[in-house]
């Protein structure tokens, strides 16, 4: 099993979610996060005083998937979340040792 | 005793139209204080929103009580000191006011209209000390400052001879060094805005800068609130200025139009400066320009022509837009620009009367004209004298009050509380519940035939 984590632009969330559902992913966890990469932040002006805002709002989307699906899921996310402009985000994959469905106590792939 | 002065003062029956307008205007002006709470509250960070709003709100509590007890009497009671202060015991508890008639309105209508001015004057000061004041000390300050600084200033400026009492204040009636020439301050450029601005500067100096001032970005957390607040202030300000006619007629109507003109021009003035200097029209700039224009036209609304009001507005908008940057250069933390907007705007309005006062104004043919209308330097000198006297008086006395409170009760929260946020430490509340991730999203359709083929199990979720 793999944990796929994606950092994407907030307005892309609905599209990515739909694409993942279409692919067949049955669940995901989403959080509002802030961060920056090579694009850095942006600047804002209040009453003439300029501020740089380093941390840009992003969405972190996480889904645990079967090994066979990981590459395809990454492709779906990248294809959907891509705008081609700076700040599109990142996707990474890490292995998972075990997973348990809390309601039934099922373990492993059956619990995904 | 005042009963004799009351009997002399006015016709026996109030005019119902005038009374209705003044009562409605008083309610409009009261609404400005919650408007100010929104205007200020949106400009601070999420950790001190409620404290910022409460500093305005508490003024409705403390000053509302103090006004009925001794405030009204101190501002408008019989004056035996030659224009400096009314006798606080004369109308203590509004004794003798309920049945009186002042001008064409009942005594209590005048009391109502004036208390809402006192409330907002005090609330305005709080913008200078955002994020760091002890709430208890601020609450005590509101009472002490109103009693020692605002009520006397209101007496000087708003108490006309033979209106509520035989002898009124020196600025309105040309006493002291004014030699018989009263200053024009229709609705409180000196008593309220210069006064609150100078007091804000004094408190900002007593309390010192916020942790991280000039280093941390202290961005306004919600400019939507700021714009709603500015809208409410503009709405209420029609009561503030046009209500100050204390009658429902041509004077009030003319003042209403001037209040619109100056405010509109000030918004444009501020925005043009921002566009040229920073490259953008900002919404905070539009809201701030509105307030700067309202402040500047407050003293001038009765004594300038509609064209004059546009000039007052555009000058105030442009100059205040530049003035709000001063705190970074001079190094004082007037957090929400009480000095840059209220002190500077109040001075602009009060002084421009000396140039622009005209017989073509709502005040009409009795007006002493300003320099540009052939009236010479007389009125300009009077305006400057009144403005700078109030400025210095307010700054010095407020500094002393603030310093004494700081040395006794402590005016500033400790560093850890300030870093954590005064909403939690002073009020045990937070403005926003950050527990909910999303407010909702589009309802998606689950596909009948997923592309993925490894799915072994139907999920009942």
3D structure, described in words:
The complex is a heterodimer of chains A (112) and B (461). Chain A contains two helices and six strands, in the order E-H-E-E-E-E-H-E. Chain A has 112 residues and is an alpha+beta fold. Chain A has one domain (2-111): Alpha-Beta Plaits (2-Layer Sandwich). In chain A, the strands form two sheets. Chain A has a four-stranded antiparallel sheet with strand order 2-5-1-6, covered by helices on one side. A two-stranded antiparallel ribbon of chain A has the order 3-4. In chain A, a hairpin with a 2-residue loop joins strand 3 and strand 4. In chain A, helix 1 (13-23) runs antiparallel to helix 2 (67-81). Chain B is built from 16 helices and two strands. In chain B, a hairpin with a 2-residue loop joins strand 1 and strand 2. The longest helix of chain B has 31 residues, at 378-408. Chain B is globular and about 90 Å long. Chain B starts with a helix and ends in a 34-residue tail after the last helix. The chains are: A alpha+beta (112), B mainly alpha (461). At the A-B interface, helix 1, strand 2, strand 3, strand 4 and helix 2 of A face helix 9 and helix 10 of B. Chain A: Keywords: Nucleotide-binding, Phosphoprotein, Transcription, Transcription regulation. Chain A: This is Nitrogen regulatory protein P-II. Chain A: Belongs to the P(II) protein family.
């Amino acid at each position: 099993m793999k944990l796929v984590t994606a950092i994407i632009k907030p307005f892309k969330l609905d599209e990515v979610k739909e694409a993942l559902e279409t692919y067949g992913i049955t669940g995901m966890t989403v959080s509002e996060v802030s961060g920056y990469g090579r694009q850095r932040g942006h600047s804002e002006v209040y009453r003439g005083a300029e501020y740089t805002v380093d941390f840009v709002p992003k969405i972190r989307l996480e889904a645990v998937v079967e090994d066979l699906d990981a590459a395809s899921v990454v492709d779906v996310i990248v294809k959907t979340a891509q705008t081609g402009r700076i700040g599109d985000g990142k996707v990474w994959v890490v292995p998972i040792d075990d997973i348990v469905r809390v309601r039934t106590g099922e373990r492993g792939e059956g619990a995904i | 005793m005042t009963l004799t002065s009351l009997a002399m003062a006015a016709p026996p029956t109030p005019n119902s139209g005038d009374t209705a307008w003044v009562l409605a205007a008083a309610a409009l002006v009261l609404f400005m204080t919650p408007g100010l709470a929104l205007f200020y509250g949106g400009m601070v960070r999420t950790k001190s929103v409620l404290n910022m709003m409460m500093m305005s709100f508490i003024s409705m509590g403390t000053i509302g009580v103090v006004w009925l007890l001794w405030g009204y009497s101190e501002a408008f009671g019989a004056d035996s000191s030659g224009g400096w202060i009314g006798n606080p015991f004369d109308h203590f508890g509004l004794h003798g006011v309920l049945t009186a008639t002042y001008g064409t309105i009942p005594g209590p209508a005048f009391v109502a209209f004036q208390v809402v001015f006192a409330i907002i004057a005090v609330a305005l000061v709080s913008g200078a000390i955002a994020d760091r004041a002890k709430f208890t000390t601020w609450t005590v300050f509101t009472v002490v400052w109103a009693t020692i600084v605002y009520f006397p200033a209101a007496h000087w400026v708003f108490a006309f001879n033979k209106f509520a009492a035989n002898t009124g204040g020196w600025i309105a009636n040309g006493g002291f060094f004014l030699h018989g020439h009263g200053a024009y301050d229709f609705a409180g450029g000196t008593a309220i805005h210069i006064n609150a601005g100078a007091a804000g500067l004094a408190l900002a100096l007593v309390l010192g800068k916020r942790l991280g001032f000039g280093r941390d970005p202290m961005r306004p957390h919600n400019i939507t609130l700021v714009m709603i607040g500015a809208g409410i202030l503009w709405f209420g300000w029609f009561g503030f200025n046009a209500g100050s006619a204390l009658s429902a007629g041509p004077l009030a109507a003319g003042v209403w139009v001037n209040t619109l003109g100056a405010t509109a021009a000030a918004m444009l003035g501020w925005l043009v400066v921002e566009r040229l200097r920073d490259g953008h029209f900002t919404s905070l700039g539009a809201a701030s320009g509105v307030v700067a224009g309202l402040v500047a036209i407050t003293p001038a609304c009765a004594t300038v022509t509609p064209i004059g009001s546009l000039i007052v507005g555009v000058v105030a908008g442009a100059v205040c837009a530049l003035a709000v940057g001063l705190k970074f250069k001079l190094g004082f933390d007037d957090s929400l620009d009480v000095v840059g907007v209220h002190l500077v705007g109040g001075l602009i309005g009060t002084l421009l009367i000396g140039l622009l006062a005209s017989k073509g104004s709502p005040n009409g043919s009795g007006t002493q004209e300003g320099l540009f209308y052939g009236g010479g330097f007389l009125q300009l000198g009077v305006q400057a004298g009144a403005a700078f006297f109030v400025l210095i008086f307010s700054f010095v006395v407020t500094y002393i009050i603030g310093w004494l409170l700081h040395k006794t009760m402590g005016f500033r929260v400790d560093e850890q509380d300030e870093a954590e946020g005064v909403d939690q430490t002073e009020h045990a509340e937070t403005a926003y519940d950050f527990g909910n991730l999303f407010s909702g999203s589009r309802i998606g359709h689950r596909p009948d035939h997923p592309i993925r083929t490894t799915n072994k199990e139907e999920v009942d979720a």
